[in-house]
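Exercise: predict the fold of this chain.
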Amino acid sequence: MEELIQYDKQLLLMLNGSDSTFLDSVIMTLTTAQTWIPLYLALFYVVWKTNRTAREIFFVLAAAGLCVLLAGTIDDTIVKPLVARWRPTHDPEIGSLIDTVDGYRGGRYGFFSAHASNTFSIAIFFSLLMRHRLFVCFMVCWSLVNCYTRLYLGVHYPGDITVGLIWGGFVGWLVYRIYCRVTIPAKYSYRDCLVPVIVLCLLLLYALVRATITTLL
């Protein structure tokens, strides 16, 4: 186990940070929860357009909320304090070696990553719900990009991310199974599912443009 822990730390040091202020800005934008609000609104739009009754819409929103509750809230309120594994930025062994951005270090404990579990649970649930290949690819990539930002910023070990993805994937699948027992999923059109995909592309463009402006100023 000690060898695995040391490998986890060495791998993080390989992935953490860069000398690019441009990339620093891109990562900080992408790791911020508020950046993805348009994506959540786009998902809601697709759900609202496809489901005909308020009851059907409520079930989807309740399922998404359950994903966040099981994937992230349990992690932050129970797992992290119980396991009490230092974030890399607070780890006495390697904390001084971590390349931070704008002094961002996160909270004390980092096992496991709520960013990974939250985003992957949402990605898996909506992928199973809408079932269009392009949409699935973009949602999974969205979650993985969020995961990478946490490694770049040095606030999670790769092991934290891996466990977060496993737990988040399980939660997304479990919530979808529960959802299917409560109601019959609607059929989502490919055209409607392109809306979140386009929004994701625009948000990435926004992060790049913002980083360019920040770097030039």
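Check your answer against the key: Residues 54-83 form the longest helix (30 residues).
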